[in-house]
Structures are given as C-alpha cells and as structure tokens.
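Q: What structure does this chain adopt?
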Amino acid sequence: MEKQKIHNSEGLRTAIAELERKKDIQEAAIKVEFKEVCEIYRPANVIKNTMSEVAASPKFRHNLFNVAIGLGAGYLSQKMVIGRSAGLLKRVLGTALQFGVTSLVAKRGTESDGEDAAGVKKTGGILKRIFSR
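A:
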C-alpha cells in the first residue's frame, strides 16, 4: 500500500479498513505457520525425523555396527581374563582390558578402508598394531 495523504474522514475510514484487512491476513498466516512449527517440533516428530535421517546414513550405521562389535569384544575379553570369580586387582585389570579392546576395535572399525585420519594406508593386522606400541 502506497502512502497517501488522508484529507477527509472517508479516506481515513478506507485506510483503516485496508489496514485491518492486511492485519487479518497476516494474523491468519502467522497462526498457520505457528501450527506448522508446533507440529514439526513436537518431541515425537523430532525423534522420528532424527531416526529416519540416521537410518538413511550408511556411514553412521557402519560406525554403530563397529562400536557394537567393539563393545562385544571388550566384554568377552574381560570375561575371559577374570572368569567367574576374581579379586579386586584382577577385576580392575579386566575392566581396563575391556576398555582397551573396546576402544581399539571400535576405532579400528570406524576408520575408512584401513586408512588413518591423514589418509595414509595402514599395513599389518590388529595384533601387530597392539604389540608394536
């Protein structure tokens, strides 16, 4: 609406009516947008959308699988070391071993195609890497 000078009461009423129509249209648009935003950010929808994005990411699924394998390997290594009953020192060592194996297997599995962060191709097996440090 271009600015016009209002010279009489009829012009004032017309300008007021136009502004009220504009205000009603803007209010309706804001209400619709508010409902859409509320629907998008409902906790259930946020979780659903996040999970579908995660499920669509093959790299994330691969990393999650490798972390799960790492946790399993760490747990099994701890159980093999401490057995059914063990003293405090043996349990602490078993927990440290579990943490180390879990970290190593999960880290090894999440690296892409045997390359390190700098893109240098790694050689040798996992046992060679463990005992060379």
